[in-house]
Amino acid sequence: MPSPPDDQDRLQATAPSAAVAEVRLEAGRLRLSGDWTIAAAARLEQALHAALAGHDGPVVIDMAGLGRIDTVGAWLVHRLLRDRPGSDIAAAGERALGLIAQVGAADRPGPVHRDQPPFLQRELAKIGVYVIELLNTTGAALAFIGRTLISFWQALASGRGLRWNSVFIQMEQTGVSALGIVGLMSFLVGIVIAQQGAVQLREFGADVYVINLVGRATFRELGILLTAIMVAGRSASAFAAQIGAMKLAEEVDAMRTIGLDPMEVLVLPRVIALVLMMPILAFFASILAVVGGGLFTWLSLDIPPATFVQRLREVVPLSDVWIGLSKAPVFGAMIAVIGCFQGFQVTGNTESVGLRTTLAVVQAIFLVIVLDAFFALFYSAIGFD
Prior knowledge:
- By secondary structure, this protein is of the alpha/beta class.
- It folds into 2 domains: 19-106, Transcription Regulator spoIIAA (2-Layer Sandwich), CATH 3.30.750; 138-381, no CATH class.
- It has helices at residues 7-14, 41-51, 71-83, 94-106, 119-157, 164-174, 179-201, 209-248, 251-257, 262-300, 305-315, 318-344, 350-381, and strands at 22-26, 29-36, 60-69, 88-90.
- Strands 1-2-3-4 form a 4-stranded mixed β-sheet, covered by helices on one side.
- Mean pLDDT is 86; it is low at 1-17.
């Protein structure tokens, strides 16, 4: 007596068997039959190639005998329609037509990587982009300076006055809090200048002229220049990051909504604070640089402090002090404007904050050095050598 079939036999008996896919070309009519699925993809490619080997014109694709079809089979039919203009489909079911239409909609050319232009052309294109960006940034920065001046005038003319509480807070953050780092840097720079000068002047027996070098270089140039560079790295970045974060949080738009001018609230206090604090920081830095140079000459060159101070008063004219201090408000205003300008340029996401903060520091330091060179040429031209 035969044993009853197990579960596996019953599953195989009830599962539909796959119909063999076939292709026949009869008088320009391509008859498709069987299951056009991924399982028969390789054999269908060969069958289509063999059936259409001697026929180059359009065909009528007869799908009356078609069984199952998936995206692979639909792609083969769509490719026939695409590569043989004028071809048509006959006796196709709605599901097959819908699948062919979806595959055809997805048949789009992908991006093509163009050949790289020659090296010289690429570099010239980069320079052109940089020049255009520089011109656009310069124009926007000049417009921002104009808006700052207009806001300053409107604040005074309207009777509202300046926001002195905000100004004092910014003076503390940008000036008082910077005294430590600025003083330490200047003190060490004064020691370095004295040491390097002593090494060179000792060969000529002119050790005493180290005082001239430290005094004139510090009060006229290095005191204010190093202070401005330090403030540019410290405050310009802070301004850009603070305003940029406020812009991303839509706090700047909220100010405009309630009738506040962001230029008056955010920019003017920072500009005024740096204009007022930069001369103080520059003078403080110059004094500490001279102290550092004097300490080195006392310990290494046996020049007592009294002699150092007396010689300093003889060789450093008061005009050097005023020339150095006259640069400070200009440097302070420029650093504050650049930092605030880059903060207002923040758009999109937090990555833009980092980019604009970096640009604020780089541009501020660059403009400080350019302005310092301009002042040096200007004072030399009018006779303050």
